[in-house]
Specification:
By secondary structure, the chain is α/β, with parallel strands linked by helices. Among the domains are: about 150 residues, Isoleucyl-tRNA Synthetase, domain 2, CATH 3.90.740; about 80 residues, 2-Layer Sandwich (hypothetical protein PF0899 fold); about 60 residues, Helix Hairpins, CATH 1.10.287. It has 27 helices and 31 strands. The strands form 10 sheets. Strands 7, 8, 9, 10, 11, 12 and 13 form a 7-stranded mixed sheet that branches. Strand 22, helix 15 and strand 23 form a beta-alpha-beta unit. Helix 3 crosses helix 4. The protein is globular and about 115 Å long. The model has no long low-confidence stretch (mean pLDDT about 90).
Amino acid sequence: MELASKYNPTEIESKWYQYWLDNKFFHSEPDNREPYTVVIPPPNVTGVLHMGHMLNNTIQDVLVRRARMLGKNACWVPGTDHASIATEAKVVQKLASEGIQKNDLTREEFLVHAWDWTHKHGGIILEQLKKLGASCDWDRTAFTMDEERSKSVIKVFCDLYEKGKIYRGVRMVNWDPKALTAISDEEVFHKEVNGKLYYIKYKVVGEDNYAVIATTRPETIFGDVAVCIHPNDPKTAAFKGKKLIVPIANREVPVIEDEYVDVEFGTGFLKVTPAHDVNDYMLGEKYNLEIIDIFNDNGTLNGFGLQYKDMDRFDVRKQIEKDLDALGLLEKVESYTNKVGYSERTDVPIEPKLSMQWFLKMEELAKPALDAVMDDTIKFHPPKFKNTYRHWMENIKDWNISRQLWWGHQIPAYYLPQGGFVVGETKEEAFEKALQKVDYPITIEDLRQDEDCLDTWFSSWLWPISVFDGINQPDNKEINYYYPTDDLVTAPEIIFFWVARMIMAGYEYREKECFKNVYFTGIVRDKLGRKMSKSLGNSPDPIELMDKYGADGVRMGMLLTSPAGNDLPFDESLCEQGRNFNNKIWNAFRLVKGWEVADIAQPESSKIAVEWFDAQLNKTLIEIDDLFSKYRLSEALMMVYKLFWDEFSSWYLEMIKPAYQQPIDKATYASTLAFFDTLLKALHPYMPFITEELWQALEERKPGESIMVSMMPQPKPVNEKIIADFEKTKEIIGSIRTIRLQKNLPNKDVLNLQIKGEHNTAFDSVITKLGNLESIKPVEEPEAGSTSFLVGTTEYAIPLGSLINAEEEIKKMEAEISYYEGFLNSVMKKLGNEKFVANAKPEIVEAEYKKKADAESKIASLKEGIEALKK
C-alpha cells in the first residue's frame, strides 16, 4: 500500500470509518466472551456537538476501543434524550416565528410539530460523533421517547405508584415562568445579583405608627398574610398582638411571633407570603395562615395584584417603588447583593410556587444506592466525588417528577368524572380499574388523562436497563448478558440528576449496580479559565477543529491535559500538538518503509538497539496497563506519546538507521516492523484513524482485517538492567553531541573517546555509531588538550588535537574569562557592602555567594583548558 508524502486526515478518516461500518466492527451480539458495556450519556436529540461532548465521547471511545482489543465483547450503546424543556422551548419559538401560539393548538397538534422538529434536527449530534471516530453500535441507537423506552417509563411509573412510592400533592416547587413548568432543585443554580433592599412602611391598625419591613421583593406584598417577629426581640416587642395594613393592598394582617425570624436582618420584621417562599409556606402551615397566590404561570401578576394585573413581576418591582414613594410608604432603598435562584434551562429567575405535582419518595430508594458507592461496589474516579454524592443522598428530598409540558411522556393517570383518579399503563387498563372503583356508569371517553408529562430524567434514569429492554422483558438474553454495564463517563454536574438516580433504578429493578465505574470528566475551559459557552463566544466549533487538525489530532490534544475530575484548560495549540504527533508517526513510518532490505549480517549496534527497545516497550506497556486500571487515561497517553517520540523516533530509529544509500538487515527490519505494530496498537484507542491507515500499510492484509479488532499486545518480562545501562549511554552520547556544538565540530568529523574509570562496553557499538567515533579506549589519564565530561564517577574525554584551532579556541576562552571576571567583580561589590549583607534576606545573600562560587569555578576551569591547549 503506497503512502502519500503528507498525512491527509480528511481523506483517511472518512475512508476507514466507512470500512469499520461496512464490516460491522462496532456491532455487538451476546456470545461467550466477557462483555464490556458502556451506555452513552444521551445528548439532547436536537443538540449539536460541543467541546464537553467531544471530551466525554473521546474518553468513552478510548475505553471501548481498548476493551475490544483486549478480547472483550465491547458494546457501546448510543442514543439521544428527548429533552422536554429544551426541545419544547425550541418548538414554541419556531411556531411563534410562524405566527402560531402554543395555546392555539391542541396537544396532538403541538406534538405533530414537536416530532417534525425532532425528525428534522434529531440525530445531527450522532452523525457528528461519527466524525470524531466514536465506535458506537449504531444498530442499537435508542431514543428516550421511542417505543421501547416509552413503554419502560410508563411501566415504571405505574409500578412505583402501585408500591406507594409515587404520590400527588400540593407542594412548594421551583417554577420556571418562561418554560411554564416546575423544575427540580437540581435544575436551579444560584447567581449573586446586585439588587435593592426596600424598607416599606406598614401602618399599625388604629395607631398613628408604622412597622418598617425590609424586603428584596416588594412586588410580593399582595401575597402578604402576616408579619412575623421574634418573640424575644426588644426592638419589635411593642408590636406584639397588633395588626398591620399591607400597603397598596390595604388588607389587615396579624403580627405573629416565631423564633424563625432573623433579628439581625433588616428591621426584625418578616413579611409572610406563604404562596411565594418556601420558609414562609412552613410558617403558614404552622400558624394556619391564608395562602394568596399572586402570580400567573408566566410571571405576571394576577387579579390579586390589583392595578398591576398582567404586568411582569420585574416591571411591577420598578413601578411599585415609585408608587410606594409617592404614597410616603417607602422609608429608604439600599443596594443589596443576594443569591437568586435561576432556572438552568431558561436562565430566568425561578418563582417559588405552590403547585399540584407528582412526587417520587426517595428515602427508601436512596439507601442501597448510597451504600453501593460508599463501599466501592460502584467506584468513582476520582473518589473525591463520593463526599458530594453522600451529602446529597443523605439529605435527599422527594423528586418532583411532573412537568407542565406536552413534549414528553404523558403521566398515565386518568381522572374520573366525579373526582379521584386511576393509574394504568394504557387507557384501557385504567378504564378497567375505574370500573372497579366507581359506583356510577362511565365510558372510556369519560376518563381524562393528566395533562402533565414526566421529568426528562425520569426516562434517562432507566437508561442502562431500558436500552436492553430490561424493564419490559426483565429476563431477556441481552439484559442478562450486558448488564451491569462497566464504565459510565459523565460530568460531575449531573451526579444528582442522572448518576445517583440510575444507581437507584438499578437496585430497584435489577437488584444490582447499573455500572461498575463512574469516570467524571472535568469542565472544558478557555485559556482564561472560563467555562466554554455559546453566550461567551469562547468555544470553538468542534467540527471546524476536526477539519483543521484531523479527528486524531483533536482527540489527542484534548486528552493530553484531561485528568479525571479536573477541568481541561483548552488551547487550540493542543490540537496542533496532536496534529504534529500525527505527522511525526507518518514520517517515521515512511522512513522505515523507504529502507531497502538485504540479507546481510545484523550490526552489533542494531542488535543491542533491538534488545533495549524491546525492554523499554514492554516496560511502558506494563505502566500503561497500570494507568488504565486507575483510569489515568491522560497519563497513559503521555507514556505512549513519549515512548514513540523520544525513545522510538529519537533514539531507536537513529541507532538502527542504515548508512546513506545502504540497505538494512532483515532481522533488524523485521523487529522494527513488529515494534511499529505494537506502537500502533497502543496508540489506536486514542488515535484510531492514522493507526488503522499505517497498520494496513505495514503488510498485506486480507479483506475484513482491522487494527481495531486485533489483539492488544501483552507485555513480556522486562530486562530492567539494559534500560538502566542505556540511560547512561544516552548521557554519554548527549555529552559528545554537546561538545560538538560547543567546539563547532561538524558531525562528519570522526572523534576518539577516552575513558578513565568503570565503563560498560555493551553499548560501545551504539556510542561509536551515534557519536561518529573512530575508537573507544580506556586510559590512565586523558591526553592533554582533551575536553572531558563525567557520567557518574567515570571521566570521558575527547582529544581535540588537530580538530580545532588552538589559537582561536584560546581567544574564545580568554574572552569568556574576561566576561566571568567582570561578573565576579559585580558580585564581590555586593558582598563587600556591609549594609547589603546585614539587611538583605538570608536566601538572597546565599544566592550571591553561590554566584561567586560558580564564577570562580568557571574561571578556574577555563584557565585549565587554556593551559592544556598551550601544551
